[in-house]
Amino acid sequence: MYNDLMKTFQEQSEKYFSPMFKFNQLVAKNIEQLAQLQLDVAQSYTETTLAQLKTAAEISDVKTFVDFNASQLNALNTLSQKMIADGQKLQQLGQEFKDNLEALSKETLKTAQV
């Protein structure tokens, strides 16, 4: 009798807390992906900035100054493309999180209605 009571309690607890566990796992996964994206973006922008800084430090005459200014347009173009790509990655992560959250909500509602 005691074993049956504990078994029933365990089954009900698992059923009750399962959506919360799944939600927590989903949030943790999303935070991990966002943190990794931020680290990747920070590293990429830092590398770009350092490369430009090194190029600027090598300016020694008018010709290298003109070449540096010309390279700034390319750097700006590259930076804007990276920003667009990073924005798309962020949007994709947000969409995946939303889709997973909606699927979890539907699953939880079906379970609750049964």
Description:
By secondary structure, this protein is an all-alpha fold. The protein has one domain (23-113). It has 2 helices and no strands. α1 runs antiparallel to α2. This is Phasin family protein. Residues 8-106 form the Phasin domain. It comes from Pseudoalteromonas xiamenensis.
Largest sheet: none
Distance between the termini: 26 Å
Count of DSSP-assigned helices? 2
What percentage of the residues does DSSP assign to strands (E)? under 5%
Mean pLDDT: 90
Order of helices and strands: HH
What count of structural domains?
1
**Radius of gyration using CA atoms only:** 26 Å
Helicity range: over 70%
Secondary structure category: mainly alpha
Shape: rod-shaped
Low-pLDDT segments: none
Number-wise, the strands total 0
Short overview:
The chain is mainly alpha-helical and 114 residues long. The protein contains two helices and no strands. Helix 1 runs antiparallel to helix 2.
Set out the fold topology.
Elements lengths: L1 H56 L4 H52 L1
InterPro entries: Phasin, Phasin_subfam-3
Protein name: Phasin family protein
Organism: Pseudoalteromonas xiamenensis
